[in-house]
Write a structure and sequence with these properties.
By secondary structure, the chain is mainly α. Helices cover 85% and strands 0% of the residues. The chain is globular and about 55 Å long. It starts with a helix and ends with a helix.
Length: 149
């Protein structure tokens, strides 16, 4: 969803610039809940205050809610189907590709200088090889940004 969100927010409507968009993503990722809902709430609030936050959050939640309710109603009929299994196995690589695409898109706009690259590599190392808690790594990254910038 990130490329779609970026296209709509920055290019089509001009509600945010790329730096504000990256900040919105950072805030949306460290707060509890799905990134699309958090982003919608943030953007709605920025544009129209509390009313905008409420309406934009509701607008993001409602279609997914209806789709999931519909799928849940029919899932028992197809749960043991080999075709359903094939569909889910086919969707996995697509999801990985979309996540990778979003990561590359955000990285292009986030890595603005050598300091940001060093912070990212350091945090990646701590999470992957030292098994550091993501919450602690977010705090360390934030403090690193404050110190270096």
């Amino acid at each position: 969803m990130l490329p779609f969100i970026q296209e709509e927010i920055i290019k089509r409507h001009g509600w945010l610039n790329i730096n504000e968009f990256v900040d919105m993503l950072a805030i949306s990722q460290i707060t509890p809940g799905p990134i699309a809902i958090n982003s919608a709430t943030f953007l709605g609030y920025k544009i129209a205050g509390i009313k905008g936050a409420f309406i934009s959050t509701l607008a993001v939640i409602t279609p997914s809610f209806i789709i999931i309710l519909t799928i849940a109603h029919f899932i028992d009929r197809f749960n043991d189907s080999k075709y359903t299994d094939w569909i889910f196995k086919g969707i996995r690589p697509v999801v990985i590709g979309l996540i990778a695409s979003a990561a590359v898109m955000v990285a292009k706009d986030t890595f603005v200088d050598i300091k940001s690259v060093i912070i990212a590599i350091g945090i990646f190392y701590l999470i992957v090889f030292k098994r550091m808690s993501p919450i602690v790594s977010i705090i360390i990254a934030g403090l690193s940004g404050v110190i270096l910038y």
